[in-house]
Fold:
Amino acid sequence: MTIQARQTYRAANTLDEGRRIFIEAYQPGSERAYVVDADTGKRFRSIRVSQLHAEPVTRSGQPRRSGYVLETDGNDR
Structure:
């Protein structure tokens, strides 16, 4: 998976009520990406890229329950 700025992710945990984040900045090879709330543009913070996933299911086919799942690739915003 290629992480890049302008991507939008949604929380995999259903208890997070569909929280979405927007990648503001990411340096390829870095362990962290800088994100903001996708709806408000506020709450600038960094998260580990290991929490960002391309698919909503695990390798075994189970739905993800943690982290964030890719929603848009950044080209349609």
